[in-house]
Amino acid sequence: MDVSKVLKEALVELESTDNEDSVQLIRVKYLGKKGLVTELLKSLKDLTDEEKKHFGASVNLAKEELLGKINSRSLEINKTSINEKLTKESIDITFPPPISHLGKIHPISKTYKEVIDIFGNMGFSVAEGPDIETDFNNFTALNIPEDHPAREMQDTFYLDQKDENNKPFVLRTHTSPVQIRTMMSSEPPIKIIAPGRTYRCDSDSTHSPMFHQMEGLLINNDANMGHLKGNLINFCKDFFQINNLKVRFRPSYFPFTEPSAEMDIAYSIVDNQIKLGEGDKWLEILGCGMVNPKVIENCKIDSSKFQGYAFGLGLDRITMLKYGLTDIRSFFNGNNNWLKENGFSLGRI
Ligand code: DAH
């Protein structure tokens, strides 16, 4: 058999294929166990030593050449088919995804946006602070004494690292330290809200170790409790979308405000469902008060010239009330089915 003829035939066949399967068939036809080239090698045994030398060498050369060509043809075909696929299957990223693939807005995200919108319209701007706080900002500057129950280990997450006063850093237990940061870094008049994450070592259907609060702080030279009440009532009417919202302010105690109050909104139970706005039952919504002059002084602001009010509310709590959700943990366990049911479409936010 003529080696160069076999090789030539193989190369012609290879050139005319355009798919990987046929390349593999050619490989088998020529180089497989019973392949034509393999047969040529087998026929060596019938030759003389001298003939073996020449013939063997030429068959081996042909085999190597063919193997190389098969491999490169195979690569070439694969590359072409990948390129074809890429062109054919390219995604038009400007094309809107089908409704079923759209994500949902988490109820907490919706609340975030709404509270920022509502207070933004009243002239409040958004301030931020870190989740990891110093003992001073989270407690001391807010007039929370060393022996206050909020400092006990079961409430607060303490970190191993210590700050410059040799006190362990904490995961902030409320957004109130943003009051301190803002008063320390800016001059009155101050008018901010500070929504954000807060942490306490507590977990049941109404408590989560990570939850959300929003702080409000207004400092000028004539703010009073009446301004505070007016703004908070307007906020609640707007947020809960209830015009005739019945509310009350109850005297309370917070170390950082004096006087302090808690705001309740009225509710009743109708058909086993909570109905907000009227009735003879009361739900606590937020804490508030006039900023304690000690706190103003702790922030190096002259409390004989400036005064103000502050408030703090749980964003998870008002979201649960607004949408009738009963377990705070469902907000944070990452269940996509829950989000599909309770989330909001992009268009509706
Ligand atoms: N920091 C308080 C808490 O976490 C909430 C609060 C109450 C904030 C009264 C305030 C306030 O600014 O005036 O329970």
Question: What is the topological layout?
Answer:
Blueprint: H1 3-16, H2 20-31, H3 36-42, H4 49-88, H5 107-121, E1 125-126, E2 132-133, H6 135-138, E3 158-162, E4 168-171, H7 177-185, E5 190-199, E6 210-220, H8 225-240, E7 247-254, E8 257-270, E9 273-276, E10 281-291, H9 293-298, E11 307-314, H10 315-323, H11 336-342
Parallel strand pairs: 1-5
Antiparallel strand pairs: 2-4, 3-4, 5-6, 6-11, 7-8, 8-9, 8-10, 10-11
Helix pairs in contact: 1-4, 2-4, 5-10
Overall description:
The protein has helices at residues 3-16, 20-31, 36-42, 49-88, 107-121, 135-138, 177-185, 225-240, 293-298, 315-323, 336-342; strands at 125-126, 132-133, 158-162, 168-171, 190-199, 210-220, 247-254, 257-270, 273-276, 281-291, 307-314. The chain is built from 11 helices and 11 strands. It is α+β, with helices and mostly antiparallel strands. The strands form 2 sheets. Strands 1, 5, 6, 7, 8, 9, 10 and 11 form an 8-stranded mixed beta sheet that branches. The chain folds into 2 domains: 3-88; 106-348, BirA Bifunctional Protein, domain 2. Helix 1 (3-16) packs parallel to helix 4, helix 2 (20-31) packs antiparallel against helix 4 (49-88) and helix 5 packs across helix 10 (315-323). Residues 174, 176, 215, 254, 257, 287-289, 310-312 line the site of 3,4-dihydroxyphenylalanine.
